[in-house]
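Interim report to the steering committee. The following record documents the input for VOC family protein (140 residues).
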Amino acid sequence: MPDYNPFHLAFPVKNIEDTRAFYQGVLGCEIGRSTDKWIDFNFFGHQLSAHVKPDELSKALANEVDGKQVPVRHFGAVLPWEEWHELAENLKAGGMDFIIEPGIRFEGQVGEQATMFFLDPSGNALEFKSFKDPNQIFAK
């Protein structure tokens, strides 16, 4: 058992095969149990359960944060600093179409963090972030 409490998130997708290709092929997530209607992924140590339910997908609303439009409904993972940078480089090299390009927020300040946003094939928004000092994840 890991030294953290993994979360579980179920979310809607358009179809299983595009979802499998993205989460396994692009993000490197291992596949758990699956059927033709749902699939579980090891999402950086957490359990994602993608369920085919296209009618539950909608255009995400956004709020302005630091002058950028951040999707209100999103999920993701907080990664170690170097792992985040490696993922960002791999996604850029693979031609990912970012909602918000990989970048650093609060540089040199408390809570310095790297962040990026992009969509999965069903239009679900994902944010990946990392903290220069992991102890500052909830810093004010």
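The mean pLDDT is 93. The committee is asked to note this result when reviewing the revised timeline.
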